[in-house]
Amino acid sequence: TLLFLPGARPCIAKDFGHGSVVCVCNATYCDTLDPLVLPAPGSYVKYESSKAGKRLERSEGKFQSSLSTPGLLLTLNISTLYQHVKGFGGSLSDAAAMNILKLSQPAQDNLLRSYFSECGIEYNLVRVPMACSDFSVRPYSYDDVPHDYELKHFRLAVEDVKMKV
């Protein structure tokens, strides 16, 4: 079992020849981030990734009271809130689950830790498609019997039990 210690572990870049790189995450190594620390009031922290190879590169800055860039004006009114962000996450489709299940158990642990742990990007939400989606290997639904309003024929598909539940 790989123990994740506080502090960033750098991305080991791998190029598949398509003009961008990915970070290696396998059974023995996965990059990590420094623990998140909220910036001081009036400051911000930015994480940037790019096709050129940046992977959640951290930088800090301060908000300015006036902006000298022509044609760009951003005004933040922190006294008025319009929405509440519940969190961040991704989708666990059939395709994602099939790929995760093809990994060894240590590689699965590292991959999931890189998404959900404090050493990773701290996802706290997951969207799970109901029945098949365009990322499934076959079309399926939970009840294909016409007029079954009482859902007597409702059944989860093998994909749901094996890969989502």
The neighbouring-strand order within the major sheet is 1-2
The fraction of residues assigned to DSSP E strands is 5-15%
Poorly predicted segments:
1-5
| Biggest β-sheet strands, sense, barrel | 2 strands, antiparallel
Describe this structure in words.
The structure is a single chain. The chain has helices spanning 94-101, 105-116, 158-164; strands at 13-15, 21-23, 43-48, 57-62, 89-91, 125-127. With 165 residues, the protein is α+β, with helices and mostly antiparallel strands. It has two domains: 1-63, no CATH class; 75-164, no CATH class. A two-stranded antiparallel ribbon has the order 1-2. A hairpin with a 5-residue loop joins β1 (13-15) and β2. The two termini are 24 Å apart. The relative contact order is 0.15.
Question: What does this entry show, briefly?
Answer:
The chain has 165 residues and is an alpha+beta fold.
Helix-strand layout with pairing:
Layout: E1 13-15, E2 21-23, E3 43-48, E4 57-62, E5 89-91, H1 94-101, H2 105-116, E6 125-127, H3 158-164
Parallel strand pairs: 5-6
Antiparallel strand pairs: 1-2, 3-4
Helix pairs in contact: 1-3
Task: Name the features.
165 residues, alpha+beta, 2 domains, two-stranded antiparallel ribbon, 16% helix, 15% strand, extended, disordered N terminus
